[in-house]
Amino acid sequence: MRQNISLEEAQHLLLERATSPGECELSIGEALGRIVSRDVVAAQSLPSFDRSPLDGYALRACDTMSAQPTQPVTLWVIEEIPAGRAAAKTVTGGTAAKVLTGAPIPEGADVVVKQEDVFVDGNLIHVFQPLRARNNVVHIGENIKHGEMLAKQGTIVTAAIIGLLAEQGIKTLYVYEPIKAAIISTGDELVGLDEPLTLGKIYDSNRHTLQARCKELGIDPVLLANVPDCRAQIAARIEEGLAAADVVITTGGVSVGDYDLVKDAVETLGASILFWRVDIKPGSPMLAAVKDGKMIIGLSGNPVAAMITFDLLAVPLLKKMMGYNKYFYSRLQGTLVNGFHKASEQRRFLRAKLLTESGRLWIRLMGMQTNSALKSMAECNLFVDIPAGSGALAAGETVLAHVVGKIQDVDE
Ligand code: AMP
Ligand code: MG
Question: Global pTM?
């Protein structure tokens, strides 16, 4: 068993044991949010015919070379082509065809002039300026080329991807099977939301935050009943979790106190402990173990520590198990707008938010950084990564941050 290892070593130990998901074929209507398991490439170039992007007249550019505002060129309109209909005639010298948005460009024409730019006089149009060939024509293959990647293996299916497949006439695709994660809260002090809160008891919030985090990832979690600080009961509940899910995640009881019994419970089960304690703050008291190829992750009970370690360690593992090809949060460098008064003996993750000011991006550290101050988690979208041995931080310093929330939430 490794102890006090670095975050990266812990992530590596987890990722190298990630199991691979199965796959299934789904209709595009059912695939939103799932992970693509087989690349999908374009079977055809789109558009498949030259088409008009606007309402106007298709004609030959060479016919308009002498056109001037005072001496327009007059053309005879030979037909009208709405969207969805093929042209019946060829555009020849001195003629034009009325085309509506989405209509195919008729044979012979090489440019479309906007309806607003011509003067219509019965079956005739007057064009007041020379037109350049290819203008206002969406050409075959301009949007998508045959063989181009539409949905890449290991990426999430979005609404736009579903649209890309639909415009190709593709009805189904292969995606990974969902995985299951069991969540167990441990602690004598915990009560459920429907139970009375007597002195010394607290509501079990981790159960709900982790459930929601799993759902955000696209995992429907298996919620198991809470257990008190009792080795046998914790072991039995973890066993239940292993039978019901691919990964078991516990919170609480993983430190060095008399009532921290998760490690003992895991050992009782005969699981092999991969590591105990990671060199980060918050959340260092955590463990990972493996039993019959299934992972058990024991997180600290502190609500913030549980979330941060879930994000930094469990999320990459879960994402790999789900079939994602990118497991880690993106990182960015930014400038602090405010400081942090404490030195960091250990590597520390500070909750922060990206904001814009005077047209530039800045990082603002949240006010409350204690382990239990869940409110600052609700407001943050970054974890600022402070190396071990750093002194206090001053405004204006450049820091590295992991982007854990949506960047669209940038403040004005
Ligand atoms: P522990 O990791 O068991 O030492 O717990 C650390 C702190 O987190 C203690 O103050 C616990 O009361 C609190 N805590 C433990 N489990 C939960 C939970 N499921 N929800 C909210 N707080 C918790
Ligand atoms: Mg406890």
Answer: 0.93
